[in-house]
Amino acid sequence: MLNFRKSLKSGIAAALIAVTGFAAIAPTVAMAQDRDGRRGEHNNRGDRNDNRGNFGRHNSGPGRPDWRGDRHWDGPSRAVVMRARPSFYRPYAVPRSRYYQNVRVYRPYGHAYPGFGFYYRDTDAFRFLGLTALSLVALNQLNEAQQRAHEEAFIEATSAPIGEPIIWNESGRTGAVTPLRDGTTADGRQCREFQQDVTIGGDKTEAYGTACMQPDGSWEVVNDNG
After folding, report:
1. Nearest to 129 by CA among 97, 83, 90, 91
2. Nearest CA-CA partner of 226 in 72, 73, 63
3. How confident is the model over 67-91, as pLDDT tens digits?
4. Global pTM?
């Protein structure tokens, strides 16, 4: 009988030790799982950041490009050479969304005017009018000269080496357009992904977008989730 009581006490003691040990370990396990969960959430945020290129896109386009390399930002910068407004040009407003020779001209922000960059007529700017869709809210704070300088940076970025920022500086406002990578769609169209930024009063706004060249030589903004 005595031995039975000793065995029972020993069993109870062992069970208490096991329960106490598990209680001490359980919070640690739970914290580790919580950290893992937060890491997963962080990775998801990173994925969403990688998809910032969808900003400003509206056309279905020729399909997702097959990119030839990773994004690059490391090229030497080049400054836009500012040009005076031609004597024939008189500022006048046009619709924010319109078509010119089957090219959609869409400026959701900033000033709406004919042409693009330092091309002041639609006929001269035809190849680049589709790039107006690669817009960002910060353009609302630019005057027409500053906005045209930003667009001129886009024009130069369509043929600049990958990773080379095309910068502009006009009346205290600055910005840049950088071609990040290039590629080709399944039907052979050449595409580029761009980063654009505008700095106003020390505050920098960035946006990303992809455009592909059409058979007629014009650029069209496309969807790309890559």
Report:
1. 97
2. 63
3. 999 999 998 999 999 999 999 999 9
4. 0.73
